[in-house]
TrEMBL record:
Pfam families: 4HBT_3, 4HBT_3C
UniProt superkingdom: Bacteria
Domain Acyl-CoA thioesterase-like C-terminal: 142-259
This protein's name: Thioesterase family protein
Species per Swiss-Prot/TrEMBL record: Acinetobacter chinensis
Limits of the Acyl-CoA thioesterase-like N-terminal HotDog domain: 30-111
Length: 267
């Protein structure tokens, strides 16, 4: 399969709510459990639905907040997207992913009015080296599951807990449909939690994330996602993975993931 999902059906009801059914392919397989979807393609397919949902001129997505309710099982899923706070300058969307009768992921997305603010534009996040001359980074392929096998990774600065890794994939999000840079790059942002683990493999502790928060001060471009990540563990079972997100033109946003730290079985 050359895609992460196959579209089964999409429909819009009288209230403007869009419901889409998909079947995940093996390419979406996660790392913690062979029967789960990785959160990265799950994020991507939700973003693909958001991109198509009642687009409005001069508005774009500024923040996506995804909460993970539990294991995202492989197989058929349904995504229901609706407006929960309408407005002329800001609006809040809700996307709910369900599978086998259970809620899997709930995403709340702010779509915001754009305007010309070039006169005051400025960033504190710095540009980083782009991937063209970086060596291949095999650490990403040490994870189990098919999803990470679909990624190309490069890095020349990575250690336990901190680093910069560039990622790209040639796999489309939906079979038979082209994938936009927004969907392709934002979907891979979940990998911030897997590229700079604080532990040596094999891990004594698991550190799955319960959410993914993405803030975009501009829309991403191109094929490469640069993740400038930091992973931190607290002393009471909770951790945090944070990242500055880059494309080859520079930084475009940030991500955060709260982690639950759990002893691995047999450790």
């Amino acid at each position: 399969m050359s895609a992460y999902y196959q579209l089964i059906h999409r429909e819009t009801d009288d209230q403007g709510c869009v419901t889409a059914r998909y079947h995940s392919t093996l390419n979406a397989q996660g790392a913690w459990n062979p029967n789960e979807q990785h959160m990265a393609p799950a994020t991507g397919i939700i973003c693909a639905e958001l991109e198509q949902f009642s687009p409005r001129e001069n508005m774009r997505i500024g923040r996506i907040s995804l909460d993970i309710y539990g294991l995202i099982e492989l197989g058929e899923i349904e995504i229901r997207t609706r407006v929960i706070r309408a407005g002329k300058t800001i609006e809040l969307l809700e996307s709910t992913m369900q599978g086998k009768g259970k809620t899997l992921v709930v995403a709340h997305t702010w779509r915001m009015l754009t305007s010309d603010t070039s006169a005051i534009a400025g960033l504190e996040d710095s540009e980083v080296e782009t991937p063209e001359n970086m060596p291949v980074f095999d650490g990403v392929h040490q994870w189990r599951g098919q999803y990470t096998k679909t990624l190309e990774a490069r890095s020349n600065q990575q250690r336990n807990g901190k680093g910069l890794v560039w990622l790209r994939t040639e796999v489309d999000m939906v079979e038979g449909q082209s994938t936009s840079p927004f969907v392709r790059l934002v979907s891979m942002s979940d990998m911030a939690n897997g590229i700079v683990p604080r532990q040596e493999r094999p891990f004594d502790w698991g550190f799955p994330n319960l959410d993914l928060q993405i803030h975009l001060y501009r829309m991403p471009e191109g094929e490469w996602l640069g993740i400038e990540a930091v992973q931190q563990y607290g002393s009471d079972g909770i951790g945090l993975s944070s990242a500055i997100l880059h494309d080859v033109n520079g930084p475009f946003g940030r991500s955060e993931q709260i982690l639950t730290l759990r002893p691995m079985s047999g450790s």
